[in-house]
Amino acid sequence: MAGDIVDNQGRGETDWQWPSIHPEGRKYGVIAGGLALVFLLLFDLSFIGWPLVALTAGILAFFRDPERIIPQDDRAIVSPADGHVCQIVEVEPPAELVGEDIAGVVGLPAGPVTRISIFMSVFDVHINRSPIGGMVRRLVYMPGKFMSADLDKASDENERQHILVERSDGVLIGFTQIAGLVARRIVPFVKPGDMIAAGQRVGLIRFGSRVDVYLPSGTQSKVLLGQKMVAGETVLAELGEQLLIEGVSQ
Prior knowledge:
- The chain crosses the membrane at residues 30-63.
- The protein is an alpha+beta fold.
- It folds into 2 domains: 20-65; 76-238, Glucose Permease (Domain IIA).
- 16% of the residues lie in helices and 29% in strands.
- It has 3 helices and 15 strands.
- It has helices spanning 23-42, 46-62, 154-157; strands at residues 20-21, 64-65, 76-78, 83-91, 113-120, 127-129, 134-142, 160-166, 172-179, 186-188, 195-196, 201-205, 209-214, 228-229, 235-238.
- The protein has an 8-stranded antiparallel sheet with strand order 11-7-8-9-13-5-4-14.
- The relative contact order is 0.19.
């Protein structure tokens, strides 16, 4: 059940259940399912009806919204997206997240930081979650192109939405939802001034995309290139921790 506490000592209970469908996707599922019934039952056109049934199932699967077990550790920065790690690089944070904005809200400091990029295919869950708990300080939408989201330049040229969250102790985390080749809309669930918890749902990107996370200075990735991420559960990094992690591809 959502909200139950579980731990790595076997305490707590959690049962598998069919994931709910986010309201954003229910209308598309209803439309596709309704058309499938029309062609199957009224017109007896199975060569159109059955593909529409498959499309309905695909839409419902795309907008699935499973519950997640969020680590209760103040040091943890959790993954904001399902998918796989496609880049881990040292970069300057986006200008939209750096320094004071016109309202005087302090942003990320200038200087290179580690950026972890997570690519979501159309088969991944597309509900995005906050890497940390705190207050939403910025929500900046930037129009742009719709190139493949796994390209490096997608961070600067694609349609995107920057989110800045500040913890109660002043730690700032910036992350960016990036539309991809097929994605055509970024849907936010939060606004500046909202208080959110680590792992809380903050938005979605429709039909294949990417999320970039900018780690605070002095914090390094705990994940590897190609590693599978689970939004709200996988720990990307621990605040202030620097370590070398190596893996073997096989």
